[in-house]
Amino acid sequence: MTTETLRRLAVLFDNAFRIPGTRLRFGLDPIIGLVPGIGDMASPILALLMIWQATRQRVPKPVLARMVINALVDAGVGAIPIVGDAFDFVWKANDWNLTLLERHARADTRATAADWLFLSLCGLVLLGLALLPVLVVWWIGRQLL
To answer: Domain containing 21: what range?
Structure first.
């Protein structure tokens, strides 16, 4: 996936729409988040793609850590019903991560094995957070039946 594609997705998720008469912008992220379980997985998946691209472009590890923290906060708070959807209006993790990616990418070097290990561990954490709402819904359904 190219950085240009990630830029388009970040704008779509975080800044696609403007509230008339204000400077406030929002994207599809809070709207998609209204779909129980599945809606909370979209933003962490985009974050994972950005972190993957950042690793491929040799973004320094401290910057990768900032990107992961942005994504974890987005996924963690975003999973809380109602509060998470409101939070998605102000927490622009995808936009911030794209800015970090573009500012720190180094095209002249390759990713090391340590970079890929870091990425894999971060991806597992993000995937776990993305699946958490689905598992909670499944567990509640199982308890009710």
So the answer is: 3-144
Using alpha carbons, select from 137, 144, 139 the residue that is nearest to residue 37: 137
Q: Is the pLDDT of residue 145 over 90?
A: no
Which residue in 126, 34, 134, 130 sits closest to 87, CA to CA? 34
**C-alpha separations of 109 from 23, 59, 62, 117 in Å:** 39, 10, 17, 17
Structure tokens at 78: 């975003």
Domain tally for the chain?
A: 1
Phi, psi of 47, deg, nearest 5: -60, -40
Model confidence, pTM: 0.71
Residues in the chain: 145
* pLDDT tens profile 46-92: 999 999 999 888 888 888 888 998 898 898 888 888 888 888 888 89
Task: Give the Cα separation of 9 and 131 in Å (integer).
Answer: 21
